[in-house]
Specification:
The protein is mainly beta. It has three domains: 121 residues, Jelly Rolls (Sandwich), CATH 2.60.120; 126 residues, Immunoglobulins (Immunoglobulin-like), CATH 2.60.40.10; 115 residues, Jelly Rolls (Sandwich), CATH 2.60.120. The protein is 2% helix and 53% strand. The protein is built from one helix and 27 strands. Strand 19 and strand 20 form a beta hairpin.
Length: 371
């Protein structure tokens, strides 16, 4: 069943009851709620409270195109089960969203059911960027001291979060995510041949597998934990050449986090059985370009994912109600002299428990580079 949550100017609220499972380790009770996001919302949050933190939960925010753009547990960045869950989305697409709540197999055993409450908030993020240029008439010199901008963040959710800054330029670029180690495709049930992370702000992704024998392939999102690994979206490959298949997804935003590629040999195989062959896999994404002129004191996890760097250092960790600052440095290069730079600074979170995070807030910036 799906429940439509009434929404007002600032958001809405809903409540429900959690029950236990039936002892099976491959599923858990799930509930789905729907709500409508109006035009003009800068940021959206969904907060949930539960009286027993040993009911392990997982929540998914599904956008109007069917993509899961937030997957979060009631486990904080330290790995501690807590009494709340926090999901966020910057610049949410207007339309009907869904929230799926999953009991992630484990309950405390102290009760057979418990209530929960939840709130949907619009434009509630407390983030400021004093001094961040946002006018083409503002000039930054490529030879002067770089500009340092403080990003002040208050965690107004109910769970400890780890924040970092991610600067993206306008437009789109295409980047390969590499060729991955060869593997033996399954003859019956598919095996995961590759597991890697897609960054945020991806508009299209293509996953390719090539072998020396006929194959098929699934590519799928693999965020979540325990029984909450979503496996969504799940893409079926098509032939693009001799013993080569590709699976492609093109949407306003491809779900980020861990993805898997599972090739499988095509039969029948005859008396000799399946041939001995290996498969190589790769991925290419179309995404908003990273701004190489911007850095911060906590690094950028998504830039590290794409370029193999190691700038990210656990992020700015803030307990509920706490405030802190990320210092962003803008250092335009000589090659940019005479150009106008436009982009967005995204403030993101990351939770290693589920291997993904949220885009909480986005801040536009622009300036013109001088010598």
């Amino acid at each position: 069943m799906r429940t439509l949550v009434p929404i007002g100017h600032g958001g809405g609220s809903f409540s429900g009851t959690l029950t236990g499972g039936n002892g099976r380790d491959a599923t858990g009770p799930a509930q789905t709620y729907a709500f409508d996001v109006p035009h003009g919302v800068n940021n959206m949050s969904l907060s949930l409270q539960v009286p027993d933190n040993l009911y392990l939960l997982e929540g998914l925010l599904i956008d109007p195109t069917g993509m899961q753009l937030s997957v979060e547990p009631n486990v904080d960045v330290t790995g501690t089960p807590v009494f709340a869950m926090q999901l966020d989305r910057a610049n949410p697409k207007p339309g009907r969203w869904r929230f799926i709540l999953l009991v992630d197999y484990y309950t405390s055993g102290m009760e057979i059911s418990i209530p929960f409450t939840a709130q949907i908030g619009f434009n509630t993020a407390q983030i400021t960027a004093t001094g961040l240029p946002n006018d083409p008439h503002i000039k930054l010199s490529a030879s002067a001291t770089p500009l340092v901008v403080p990003i002040n963040i208050t965690n107004n959710g109910g769970i400890t979060e780890s924040y970092f800054a991610d600067a993206r330029l306008e437009g789109l670029t295409t980047l390969p995510l590499g060729t991955f180690e060869a593997c033996l495709p399954a003859t019956q049930l598919p095996n995961a041949c590759w597991g890697g992370y897609l960054p945020t702000q991806v508009r299209a992704a293509q996953f390719v597998a090539q072998s020396t024998a006929p194959i098929t392939m699934d590519a799928y999102g693999s965020t979540g934990y325990i029984v909450g690994f979503t496996g969504a979206p799940d893409l079926t490959a098509r032939s693009v050449g001799t013993d080569t298949v590709a699976a492609t997804l093109s949407v306003p935003e491809v779900p980020w986090g861990e993805w898997g590629i599972s090739p499988a040999l095509l039969g029948p195989f005859g008396p000799a059985g399946a041939p001995a062959t290996t498969t190589t896999t790769s991925a290419v994404v179309e995404l908003k370009p990273f701004d190489a002129s911007v850095s911060s004191d906590y690094g950028d996890l998504w830039s590290d994912v794409v370029f193999g760097t190691a700038t990210y250092s656990n992020g700015l960790v803030l307990a509920p109600g706490a405030s802190g600052t990320i210092h962003v440095t803008i250092a335009p290069s000589a090659s940019q002299v005479g150009t106008t730079v436009r982009g967005f600074l995204y403030i993101d979170t990351f939770n290693g428990v589920v291997g993904t995070g949220d885009e909480v807030y986005r801040i536009p910036y622009s300036y013109t580079v001088t010598p």
